[in-house]
Write the structure tokens for this entry.
Amino acid sequence: MTGAQVTVVIPTRNRRRQLSDALRSALSQTGPAVEVVVVDEASTDGTKELLDRLQDRRLTVRRHDRARGVAAARNSALDTARTEWIAFLDDDDVWAPDWLSTALTAAANRAAGLVYGSCSLIDERRRLVGTHRAVAPATAQDRLSSDNVIGGPSAVVIRTETLRDAGGFDERLSALADWDAWLRLRRLTTFAVVDEPKVGYTVHRGNMHVAQPFRVLAEFRRLRALVAERGDGTLDEAAFARWLAYENAAYGRRGRAALLYAHSRRVSHSARDVRSALGALAHRPRSPSRPLRDGPAWLNAFRDPHEPA
């Protein structure tokens, strides 16, 4: 689309219902003109039919005949993006209508090449269940060596050429490819932050760190090796395993949580992890999906009016 300022990339695989909301939020952005690229990773659930019915000149669909992974999906759109800025939206997340305009204003104010923001944590029914507050840019630059304080791609907007200079997303990684990219980008550009939550990040049992925590832990070791090769710091495996354990405990997966705390204990030799492992087995954890209160108006617009709160 000629004249667009931001390319929005939405990788998707078999999430037809959620994708509809993501597309609506991307195509409803106020301010900057957008082109939206959906990369369909061989979906079999009617996603193709949904996309074929959409008539919007701002939308481009790319289909992979086999799933190549989310990093490859993002890179395929990055390779041909013609806009100054690029943004990534996961297929189960949503944006406030002014997310991109607010992010670009923050970038201009700090002459930044990467903007990230706070998130409203939501469940699959688009109910607010919590808030992730973004840290200050200086803190983010420092703490990225220990944990992914920026978070997922849905809350990040990047200057396109800067991301290309960084090498895009490493296709040897999946769940942690974003963290790896942020680590490389911090050497190339200034960061800016949007304090007000204008991104709805969906938390559910299908998130990979809950559904497949040991696979994610194995990927963390690959990432740690890559970071060490670049001389980009030393990632803390015990802390990462502890985070995985906490997330699994929150969803009632006490056995997995205990095993992950035990792994953290083996790495860190900390007695605290032994107590945490025993606690994960002994106590019924709270559910992270209990709605806290009504969300902001832009988020409530994605709620089904016929569905009970």
